Request: fold
Amino acid sequence: MVVATTLHRTLPNQLLRHPDSRIVDLAHKTLHTVSQNAGRDFSGLGIVVYKGISFNHIERVDLRPSISCPEDILLGTDRSVSELLRMGRSDSPVHDGFFLFDENGRLTHTAQLCIFRPHAEVKVNEQHGTRFLQLQFGSMEDTIILTGTISRFDHQYHIFQHGKIIRSSDDGIHEPHME
Reply:
């Protein structure tokens, strides 16, 4: 972790703590559309949007290393929705997984498990499971822009930043923020 600390100090604070609202809007649009179109065989999923330099600091396990990650998948596109729906089906070899996107919204990796350290500031929500809690913890990491999850059971989605829900199924879909 010494390397991570050194890298964090070289980046502007604004980049570390104030992510681009455009990527939040793209993640929201994608998760909203996936949740609206998920079928009975949908196993749920998690997304992690990370800063480019931080990928190697995400502890993850790929239980299917022989399966390559689909290429040219961008958050907010019809293709991202169709691929997440396909990969989220129970019969997909990468179902119930975590999908890692870089800061430009490009899918770079799939993993069956992401491990983020617990944070005392995050209160356990007894209505949700391990994936929800892990992604809430992950959103507390300085190198993570946002995390999001869609439930297997009710297809509700949540997007986290800094341990807090910033968007959810309850919000519906909004026009992108203009700056």
Summary: Residues 1-19, 174-179 have pLDDT under 50 and may be disordered. The chain is about 30% helix and 20% strand. The CA atoms of residues 50 and 149 lie 15 Å apart. The chain has one domain: 2-171.
